[in-house]
Specification:
Blueprint lengths: L4 H23 L11 H30 L14 H13 L9 E2 L3 H12 L14 E8 L12 E7 L5 E7 L11 E5 L2 E8 L2 E7 L4 H15 L2
Antiparallel strand pairs: 1-2, 2-3, 3-4, 4-7, 5-6, 6-7
Helix pairs in contact: 1-2, 1-3
Length: 230
């Protein structure tokens, strides 16, 4: 069965994230001590690069198959993870490694950031204070939602936090989550990105990290939840 536009968009975002991570490696000059001394060595390097891209392509294919396997006839359906959780994991994978531009608006303009995102999402937002669990606000950004169309406002916000060791977590906030009936506190893993998510009235929240364990992330998620639901 053909994939949906939402699934196509998710795979495209993942492909872009993989290219962003690995393309620079292919463009790096070969160190002098490793330069090929003859045609044979050069040929083997080309084969190795090609094999690497084949492996990467197979990995993306496996992920695509995993995302679509429950759509094939004869495969029993599994518990469905809300689409916004998968998009939160992809957004974390794309933006958390950024060094120069991890956010659009920095923590030094927190009041402006929260007011801006609240206006764009059409709902009052808060940036939780997480210093007690070791994380400080880096800033945030506005992201498009899968239901956004040209000229319509985006309905997703991402807040980024970082600890002293440099690990980052992101809080993804989506409006119009009323169609999702599951409101319990849940855990999901998308690749190496761990996500705790929940829905509170019309807002969906997803806290993501690829650098800390599930127990540590749960502790942070509880702190976020308690502040947003005093």
């Amino acid at each position: 069965m053909a994939s949906t536009p939402q699934e196509d968009a998710e795979l495209k975002a993942l492909s872009q994230a993989l290219h962003q991570l690995y393309d620079p490696v292919l463009d790096e000059p070969v160190p002098e001590r490793l330069r090929a001394r003859n045609v044979k060595h050069a040929r083997w390097r080309s084969v190795a690069v090609a094999a690497g891209w084949v492996a990467l392509g197979l990995g993306a294919g496996v992920l695509a198959g995993w995302q679509l396997h429950d759509r094939r006839p004869g495969v029993p359906p599994q518990a469905e993870v809300p689409g916004f959780v998968k998009r939160a994991a992809v957004a974390h994978a794309v933006y958390s490694p950024e060094v120069r531009h991890p956010v659009e608006v920095g923590a030094d303009q927190e009041q402006h950031l929260v007011a801006w995102l609240s206006k764009r999402l059409g709902a009052p937002l808060r940036a939780p204070k997480l210093e007690d669990v070791g994380y400080s606000l880096v800033g945030g950004r506005l992201l498009p939602d899968e239901s956004s169309v040209a000229g319509a406002p985006a309905s997703v916000a991402q807040f980024m936090y970082q600890c002293k060791q440099g690990t980052r977590i992101t809080l993804y906030v989506r409006t119009n989550a009323v169609g999702n009936r599951e409101t319990a506190f849940r855990f999901a893993a998308e690749g190496n990105v761990k996500v705790f998510y929940w829905i509170d009235r019309k807002l969906g929240y997803a806290l993501s990290s690829a650098d800390i364990g599930k127990d540590v992330l749960m502790n942070v998620a509880n702190a976020v939840y308690q502040q947003l639901n005093p």
